[in-house]
Design goal:
Subcellular location: Cell inner membrane
Number of helices: 19
Structural class: mainly alpha
Largest sheet: 2 strands, antiparallel
Domain LapB rubredoxin metal binding: 352-376
Order of helices and strands: HHHHHHHHHHHHHHHHHHEEH
Number of strands: 2
Low-confidence stretches: 19-24, 28-39
TPR repeats: 39-72
Shape: elongated
Distance between the termini: 115 Å
Transmembrane segments: 6-26
Strand order of the largest sheet: 1-2
Binding site for Fe cation: 354, 357, 368, 371
Length: 390
Amino acid sequence: MEFELWWLLALPITFGLGWLASRLDLRQWRRESELKRDAPLSYFRGLNFLLSEQQDKAIDAFIEAVTADPNTVDLHFALGNLFRRRGEYERAVRVHQNLLARGDLPSAERQRAQIALAQDFFKAGLLDRAESVYTALATSPYQSEALAALLQIHERTKEWPRAIDIAGQLERLGAGSYGRQIAHYWCEVAMQCQQSHDLTGALDALDKAVRVHPQAVRPWQLRAGIAQQQGDAAQALEHLRHIAQIQPDFTALAALDMARLFRETGQAQAGRDWLLAKLQDYPAIDLLDAVLQLEADASERYHLALTYLQTHKSLLAARRVLDQTSTALSPEPARLALAQALDGALKNRQRYRCAACGFEARNYTWHCPACQGWETYPPRRTEELQLLAV
């Protein structure tokens, strides 16, 4: 009888424990269901705000979604990207660092969070931190992206030997041809050597620039500068004339220096004829100016400028004709008024324009400060390019 009594007591106890466990499971299930239901609603609401370009509301919705389900990794990335786009780099860094602090994050998602964190640092201007993260990713599936970012960092910090090494790695990975950029990096090395009075090192760097990109113009221009520094005007002239052989369009950039060197070496007449031949084949206002500098006869200078204006009807050419007009043909008050009118019209038309991004510069530059492109400026001013396009 005693055994049967305990058996009867065990039945209701077991039933009660089972009922209690089911209630707890049901409550947990309901909580999880609510979280799973709320998170997608917040997520889709955030997407809707994002598509409507309401970024503030989108961020609030994504924060709500992340709070409801902290394990949703993609929501963290979406939120971090939104912060970065808005320029809130500290908040973006915090989101991605929180992801990396999770011990259960899979390897692929960890690398994804690292690349996102590196982008945050880069955008925030924390280049040393960005460099350390990108360097750690240089052997990951994000290798190409990491190396491309490291190349930008080394350009900005003017660490040209490192930039040369990274560009070579990208080329070997099949990411494209970097010969032109590497040639410019060697030119930058040469300029640093020249500033420290290491002409041997500068010439060696320029030799490497020519080897990596035989059509490069800039190394010959820098070689000419070193030759002039050493007092060898004839050698400097030969270096500049070589530019006309490899890239004739760029002769205009060196034309005025060539005119001066022709005069210094006693070749004014021969130089005038040589430059005039180049002017006929590759018309440019700088070439015309060089020819006019070497022409001794005033009436012939006027004739040359007028002929150029007749074939290349530009304000720049008109200004050159006016410069060569004698006071007998045009009284001084009239010439002054015309000159002022032309100068006003030419104020924004004598710039060089980047072919990649359209940024304009007063002087020719090999590196665009806006898009960071190398050799993206045509060697003619904007008005000349517009005339050629007609």
